[in-house]
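Journal club prep, notes for RB
We'll compare a predicted complex against what the paper describes. Inputs for the 1,3-dihydroxyacetonephosphate case:
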Amino acid sequence: MTVTATTDDLYAKVSHVIPAIEWATMADDAETIMRLKRERNAVILAHNYMTPEIFHAVSDITGDSLALAREAVTVDADVIVLAGVHFMAETAKLLNPGKTVLIPDLRSGCSLAESITADDVRALRAAHPGVPVVTYVNTSAAVKAESDICCTSGNAVEVIESLGVPKVIMIPDRFLAANIARQTGVEVITHPGACEVHERFTPLDIADIRAGHPGVTVLAHPECPPEVVDAADYAGSTAQMVTFVAANRPTSVALITECSMSDNVAQEFPDLEFVRPCNLCPHMKRNTLGSIRHALETMTNEVTVPEDVAQRARAAVERMLAVRIAK
Ligand code: 13P
Ligand code: SF4
């Protein structure tokens, strides 16, 4: 296709991490998505694990799970395309019941969301009467509806401490629960869920990175096992990793998380060396320029939440959003 000023402008946003020859295969989809957004009055919210051509070139709002939930409240458009996974689209719908929320591929799940049902939450409550349920946003709306409050990896400590109780049920990620429990004085009961991307990292991976890259700064996501977090220099949500890199500008950095994260941060910090050990999230990778274009062209893959579930799930998300976090 003819390269127009528009595609040149879009390419400038990803030129550090996408070769021009590869962009040539993407330019038509990217330009069509930009046109469809205008025609449909649509915005694209993209998680930090989107590939750079989605994250930097065609999206309007980007961030971690917490930022996407916060920003969803402020969206001024008729249509939201959630470039991420199903639970994120449900959260956007909970916070925007009057808007059309589309997801590029309805099969974009999450091993954590799939690890727990509403019945499991009711059973945990019955086993631990009176103990509040703090639910990671990586869950279905039906599970959120059974919860007292939600949290993300970016605010879990503040959410738990806001409750002022000695014990909480924190579901469904056993590693996040273990990592957060160590930062609070609160006893944490959890559930045997795990992120299929982060559970695979090991302390040996970090030892190998340090051996191959002396002086490297290692940042781990708190969905990693505690022994991996212990071996890292810092642990935080994907947005907290970006904040850390911006503030500390380590010359060499390894992000122990999903693969696209390093590509996206490298585009913003071209002078830093990114060591790229990573695991792909197959659910996040169902998002492509082609699937986004198709959703906008056909207005298909709408995400809805039944109203009785939505009311209770929304309350748990809104309680989370009301908790102030130290930034
Ligand atoms: P955050 O971006 O909130 O750190 O979450 C990571 C993740 O695995 C989302 O699915
Ligand atoms: Fe779920 Fe892990 Fe994929 Fe995030 S990276 S969507 S937590 S499986």
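Talking point for the session: The chain has a mean pLDDT of 95.
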